[in-house]
Design brief:
This protein has two helices and three strands, in the order ααβββ. The protein is mostly helical and 140 residues long.
Length: 140
């Protein structure tokens, strides 16, 4: 091997090392940014759904949407589409769960209380929330 080839090989190794060090520090930051943006989108989606439900309630004689909440809100024009829940503990979903809420407490997506059930005093009729028990999501 000539000196020129050795020099080129050293340059390539140096470049690969620099790229590796940059990737080592950049990839965790990038994943944190993605997670934070997903959480922000989820919070905006929750606010949009709550606004749509409030408008529906006001326009329909103080009645909340029923078990077909997705269909009712979209078809009547209260919201263009049901937003997705983007959280790290569950698969992305825009499904609104309306049944068996006491059993399905951590399935991801949305949960919506259709009626006042005596066994769940912390949620009231017409309330929608993120169906996740990890961290702060259970408080929203």
């Amino acid at each position: 091997m000539t000196n020129k080839n050795i020099f080129v090989l050293m340059e390539i190794l140096a470049a690969v090392t620099i790229v590796g060090v940059i990737a080592y520090f950049a990839i965790p930051k990038y994943s944190n940014i993605l997670r934070a943006s997903g959480e922000a989108a989820t919070k905006r989606g929750l606010a949009s759904l709550r606004s749509a439900i409030a408008l529906y309630y006001g326009d329909n004689g103080a009645k909340y949407p029923g078990v077909d909440i997705s269909k009712e809100l979209v078809e009547k024009g209260y919201i263009k589409q049901i937003p997705y829940v983007y959280i790290s503990h569950h698969k992305d979903s825009n499904v609104i769960l309306t049944h068996n809420l006491e059993i399905n407490t951590d399935t991801g997506g949305w949960a919506y209380k259709v009626d006042d059930m005596p066994n769940s005093p912390d949620r009231v009729k017409g309330q929608i929330w993120i169906n996740c028990s990890h961290g702060d999501w259970s408080k929203l």
